[in-house]
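Example (one chain per record):
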Amino acid sequence: MPDTLFSQLDAVNTCLLAAGQSLVNTLAEDGATDTSVAEFILEQQTLEHQLRGLAAAKQRRTITVDPTTNTFVLSDNCIDVECVTYVTSSESGGRAVITVRDGQLYNISDSTYIFAEDSIIVDEIVKLEWDEIPVAMRKAIASASAVDYVAQVTDDTKLLQRAMQREAMTRAQGKGQDVRARQHNQNFGSTAFRASYGRQLRGSNNPRYPRF
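Predicted structure:
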């Protein structure tokens, strides 16, 4: 079921509203207002935010050599990668610089797709659909897009200042949500922490958590 809590249409309307323009009811090309500029800015801001490695956009995988290509093939929607496994460069003897190229792991240090390892652990940064991005981060992306949009279509400094103030607030909210997600992902990987965390909740008076 699609998430309609803060849709792409809402995000585009955030840009239009920030610039003092009329809202739209659809993103279809036959709409009364040309939203192509706002949509393009929103798309670029979405990509930029995801490339920073949002907790929701990062997945840890152990990948093995593809027998057909003899390379490490990444997920189809992978846009960046962080190599967890220590890969030694045959050129420098230090840690190799690894990136994604043509959907595969690429060793920049040695200029090769071929690795000595049979398996490698990586953190893939994947491109999420809009509905898959946490709502707080969607709002942060929309506000950042609104600042760029206002700067593009108007010379009104008051509108720009207002958009920048709004962006600062939503950015903080988005970062807070992402930090909590990262802490959850890291901390709950520990069995000891989960047990300790459970004891804390059972001993608290917080009505959000059941006492069992």
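Caption: The radius of gyration is 22 Å.
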